[in-house]
Amino acid sequence: MKIKFLTVFCGSKPGKNPAFEQVAIALGSWLAQAQIALVYGGGNKGLMGAIANACLANGGKVVGIMPKLLLEWEAQHKGLTELIITEDMHDRKKLLYEKGDAAMVLPGGIGTLDELFEMLTWNNLKIHNKKVFILNVDGFYNALIQLLATMDKEAFLYDDWKERFIICNSVAEFTKLFSYP
User: Fold this and answer.
1) 179/67 Cα distance (integer angstroms)
2) How far apart are CA 127 and CA 130, in angstroms?
3) ∠ at Cα 133 (143, 92), nearest 5°?
């Protein structure tokens, strides 16, 4: 698989587990080395800031997309390759997904889950067919994966949910899927 732009959804907070930030830094560094541009929410805090700063520190390109509403809340990153300001959250999500060739979900909160489920819904409705990866750092998404299995078991899903996304447990596992350095 080859991609030029990876959209990453993750928390604007770092979370309690230091592994979350370490993974964000490792992924950002790898993206720069692999010459894959990072597309993300445009913030400078939490995991969002960690991945963007790591990508930039290693010579990578970073495109931030942020709605006017969140310019101060998520502390807009001022050192990005490009920052696009949208009118609202819906436009932000649509543009985030359009700009990426694939998407990665790291740990995060409600906004991250919203973005994940919108992407999965768009895949299900055949609006697009981009790969969606979940980086399941230290089992962060285990409960979500179990919930999806239950939804499937109870016949609430139309397609095989396991075909909707690829679960990786480490950055190394993710990078093996690509033909990059």
Assistant:
1) 34
2) 10
3) 100
pTM: 0.94
β-pair partners for 67: 86
Return the amino acid letter for 85.
Answer: I
Domains of the chain, start order? 5-175 (3.40.50.450)
88: number of Cβ within 10 Å: 11
Please give the average pLDDT of every successive group of 10 residues along the chain, which has 181 residues: 93 97 98 97 96 98 94 81 94 94 97 93 87 96 95 88 86 85 52
Rounded-to-integer distance, Cα 130 and Cα 117, Å: 13
What does the alpha-carbon distance between residue 157 and residue 151 come to, in Å, rounded to a whole number?
A: 6
Three-class DSSP category at 107: coil
State which H helix or E strand residue 132 sits in: strand 131-135
- What is the Rg, in whole angstroms, of the alpha carbon atoms belonging to the chain? 15
The two beta strands, 131-135 and 166-168, are parallel
- Burial profile 63-77: b = 16 or more Cβ within 10 angstroms, e = fewer: bbbbbeebeeebbbb
- In total, the chain counts a number of residues equal to 181
Query: Pick from 47, 98, 103, 44: which is nearest to 72 by CA?
Result: 44
Helix (H) or strand (E) holding 134: strand 131-135
